[in-house]
Amino acid sequence: MKPVLASGFLFVGGAIMMTVSRFSFVPIIGGACAAIGAGWLLYELFIEESDKK
Fold first, then answer.
1. Distance (Å, rounded) from C-alpha 39 to C-alpha 7?
2. pLDDT the model gives residue 7
3. Residue 19 CB: number of other CB atoms within 10 A?
4. What is the dihedral of CA 4, 6, 11, 15, to 10 degrees?
5. Dihedrals phi, psi of 20, to nearest 5 degrees
6. Per-residue pLDDT tens digits for 1-53
7. For residue 34, with 0-12 CB atoms within 10 Å meaning exposed, 13-18 middle and 19 or more buried, which class applies?
8. Both ends of the chain: CA-CA distance in Å?
9. Which of 45, 35, 32 is nearest to 4 (CA)?
10. pLDDT at 51
11. Are 35 and 14 in contact (CB under 8 A)?
């Protein structure tokens, strides 16, 4: 359960970072974090469950 929680925090944190408009590079970093977090979340939820069966 801990990897799912960590990936959720990475996704949400990246989405929050995408809303920053003061610096031009922060939304790009936030988008990368959100994409990695979403991919990790989908992997942990769907791929790992099929391996455990």
1. 8
2. 87
3. 9
4. 150
5. -70, 125
6. 677 888 888 899 999 998 988 888 899 999 999 999 999 888 888 886 556 55
7. buried
8. 16
9. 45
10. 60
11. yes
- SS3 category, 48: helix
Sign of the C-alpha dihedral computed for residues 29, 35, 37 and 40 taken in this order: negative
CA dihedral 22, 31, 33, 35 (to 10 degrees): 170
Predicted pLDDT of residue 1: 64
Residue type, 22: R
- Whole-number Å distance between alpha carbons of 22 and 2: 33
Q: What is the pLDDT of residue 53?
A: 54
CA angle 43, 46, 52 (to 5 degrees): 105
